[in-house]
Every structure is written in C-alpha cells, then in structure tokens.
Automatic annotation (TrEMBL):
GO biological process: L-amino acid transport
GO molecular function: ATP binding; ATP hydrolysis activity; branched-chain amino acid transmembrane transporter activity
Protein name from the UniProt record: ABC-type branched-chain amino acid transport systems, ATPase component
Pfam families on file: ABC_tran
CDD domains documented for this protein: ABC_TM1139_LivF_branched
PROSITE patterns named among the record's database cross-references: ABC_TRANSPORTER_1, ABC_TRANSPORTER_2
Family to which the UniProt record says this protein belongs: Belongs to the ABC transporter superfamily.
Annotated PANTHER family: HIGH-AFFINITY BRANCHED-CHAIN AMINO ACID TRANSPORT ATP-BINDING PROTEIN LIVF
Keyword Transport: yes
Length: 233
C-alpha cells in the first residue's frame, strides 16, 4: 500500500530525516514510535505532502507520489489526521465533517456522514454546535471522522492520544482498531508507545531521524531495549 525508500527531509539546512525505509501493507495497522523530536511528525508530513522530501521515494499503491502536492495525494486515498487535531473551532461539527468530503459532491457524502455519526454518536449529538466547544477527546474523534470523510485507503494518524485522559485514549484506540474492519490501512505515529504497540500489527522505532528497530508489534513490546527506553519498564 505505502512504501518509503531512503526518505530524507530538511528544515532549512538541517536534515532531520536521514534516509527512512518503511512499508505499510494493505489492511495493516503499523506504528512508528519514538521520543519527542525523533522526526515522527516530519515523516508523516512528508508522506502527506505538506513537507518536501529532499531525497528518497514514496510509493502509494504502486505509484511514485513523491512529487505530488498534498491535495493530489488525498485524491488518491492517502489522508492525514494531523497532530494537535487542527479542526476548525469556529465551524460546527457537521461543517467540519463536510470539509473532509470537499473532493466529493455525490450522494455518498450523506451516507459517509451517517456512518461517521454511527461510529461517533457524540458527534451526532453535537453536530450543530461549534467544534471549539468539544472536549479534547471529542475533537480528536472529529479529526479522525473528518479524515475518514475523504474516503482514505490509508490514514496517517499523528499522536491521536496526545493530551487525552487514559479512558479517552482507550476510546480512540478502539476507533483505530475498528478502521481495520472498514478496510482502512493505518500508519500511526505515537509517543504513547504502549498504547500504539498494543493495537499495531507491526512497528518501527525511530531515533533522531533514523529507523533503529522494526518488527511485529508483539515482539517489540517484549524487547528489553524497547521496554526500557519506551515503556519505562
Ligand atoms: P513530537 O512528537 O514532539 O512532534 P517528532 O518525533 O514528531 O516529535 P518532529 O516534530 O518531526 O519530531 O521533529 C524532528 C526534528 O525536527 C526535531 O529536532 C525538531 O526540533 C525539528 N523541527 C520540527 N519542526 C521544525 C520546524 N518547523 N523548523 C525547524 N525544525 C523543526
């Protein structure tokens, strides 16, 4: 589904991704874990096309999308739900969802909206309220629901658990799990390594712009180096 080869990226003259290789297969939940500043957000931004890569390739469903602008990637089925949510707080919940479907004008938008409300009943209850009035967890649900309105084949999720109380983290993880049943492949970036490894099929560990470990999530969660560095065990 998604294949990254030798990806490098810079802010000004400082390179922060030093040649990333990773694969996400259709139907998988893959996570990239790593400390604050490791480059996880930059990686997702390069994949969604909002940050330029200075070298390397991104292949999506067999096509080289490395040079495509972000909106073209969304059109191909690759969507990002950004860190910090970035919902439009002065618009209503429903207006935010409609923006996620801006590529489409067909009758399926109403069905997608109904599906989103079935997945997140609290969003239906609050559909006419300003999104700025939602709690942190509800805003995160709205960000994911909005990304799903773009009918992605592959969803890039940046730190969906950030800033949430543990019970809400569990709810968000349940949502990510249900995406598997909807045929949405997920690349999940998380600092909450335990949460991410507990729902992922495979995982990559990122340290200062490089992938340093990779494997089935169940193996990494048991690996002494991961346990010490990322799980605090
Ligand atoms: P976090 O979880 O805190 O977002 P991260 O793993 O996602 O961390 P990035 O945000 O990708 O890491 O940052 C990688 C490196 O790039 C860090 O050293 C960071 O300071 C630097 N960086 C990030 N954004 C910028 C920017 N806009 N300009 C310059 N440097 C940046």
């Amino acid at each position: 589904m998604l294949s990254v080869e030798g990806l490098r990226s810079k802010y000004g003259r400082i390179e922060v991704l030093h040649g990333i290789d990773l694969e996400v297969h259709s139907g998988e939940i893959v996570t990239v874990i790593g400390a604050n500043g490791a480059g996880k957000t930059t990686l997702l931004r390069c994949l969604s096309g909002v940050q330029p890569a200075s070298a390397g390739k991104v292949l999506f469903r067999g096509d080289d999308i490395s040079r495509l602008p972000a909106h073209r990637r969304v059109g191909l089925g690759l969507s990002q739900s950004p860190e910090g949510r970035q919902i439009f707080t002065n618009l209503t919940v429903e207006e935010n969802l409609r923006l996620g479907a801006y590529l489409f004008s067909d009758a399926r938008v109403d069905k997608d909206m109904a599906d989103a409300y079935a997945m997140f009943p609290v969003l239906r209850e609050k559909r006419n309220l300003s999104a700025g009035g939602l709690s942190g967890g509800q805003q995160q649900m709205l960000a994911i629901a909005r990304a799903l309105m773009g009918r992605p084949n592959c969803l890039l999720l940046d730190e969906p658990s950030m800033g949430l109380a543990p019970i809400l983290v569990d709810q968000i993880l349940d949502v990510v799990r249900t995406l598997r049943g909807l045929d949405v492949t997920v690349l999940l970036v998380e600092q909450n390594a335990f949460a991410a490894l507990s729902i992922a099929d495979r995982a990559y560990v990122m340290e200062t712009g490089r992938i340093t470990m990779a494997g089935p999530a169940g193996e990494l969660i048991a690996d002494p180096r991961v346990r010490e560095a990322y799980l605090g065990l």
